[in-house]
Amino acid sequence: MKGDRSRSIPDNRLVLIDYGTNLEVLFASLMLGTKGNRESLLNHSRLGDLKSCRCSVRLAHSAVPRTNKAKAAQTGRKGIQLTDELEEVIDRLRRVATCWHLDEKTETYTFDFYISEATREAFSTYWDSPFEFYKSLHKLALLNDLAIPKSSRERVKKDIENRKFASRLAEPQQEEMVFGFEEVRFWHEDAMGGSVDYVSLSDGEHQQALILGAYAMIADRNSLFLLDEPESHFNPKWRVKFVQRLIDMTGTRGNQEMLLTTHAPFVPSDMPREQVMIFSRPRESGIVEVREPPIETFGATFDRILETCFDIRPPNSEIAEDKIEVLLKSDDVELVEAGFNELGPSTGKALLADHLRKLKKKLS
Length: 364
Prior knowledge:
By secondary structure, the chain is an alpha+beta fold. It has helices at 22-32, 35-42, 69-75, 84-96, 117-126, 130-141, 150-161, 203-217, 236-248, 302-309, 318-328, 333-342, 347-363; strands spanning 47-58, 99-103, 108-114, 179-188, 195-197, 223-228, 256-261, 278-280, 289-291.
């Protein structure tokens, strides 16, 4: 780190939480969150409590810039020069770890945690809340940017200057990260079922833990949550229950609001019309338009929301809808009847049944 080592890394009111911070959110929430919130984060995945965790901090490996000998002699660090604040974070992790190890050659700290109520009590000695612990972990994770090659940094800088915002931001490879989690394991829901590794969970399970974990840990302050399609990896059952799960985790909160974008009918069906906005951009004008739904969305069926909010009429896939249209125009009874028998229940099939009845009546 450059500059005054005693200067704390400043906090701000804007927090970006994405998939890259998933384990930091989950670990913080499951270590220091309330018992009710911890259960809410895991029971949808049929998991019990957090069982164990290993994380490491590598300060002097080949991917990061070398420190000159004079500086190393002054600070005692051969690799990355940490601020006093980050030195304190590492010292706290050492104190609360079930066991830890330091490889002096590479300045690699390895921390192992076996989770129990005693472990949580130790963590609460140094961090007041899940969010405070998350910020400590995230500041360590910011050191990973030091492992990004200079050429990649320059490329990103030029892209920003040239307003090429579609370019992907550079990220260090997993094996080059300064800070990271090496293993996270959970107890199975059934105590006799052994443990479950985090990497074996689905993308939907990861995403739900991230969204609910972030919402649970930022509860005691005035906040505006901006959620971009938070349910995109959920299965249908989880999508139906998503808003209710957020409500169940509300608890005692500050003055908070939430802006959520979605392309699915599940969320609007749990919200009153005045809380829903439809954004569209007509091809003719190219200007974004905002309007209220033409119907009451709360309690509306998904097909009605698809029709009125997403302009899908009727709510069939295009292949099936095209086939129904062809059959509705056909006078071949055998062809219509065969097609009718291939279709699942739908409004289109009901129309086809009426068409088939009229054709048979003509022949009788």
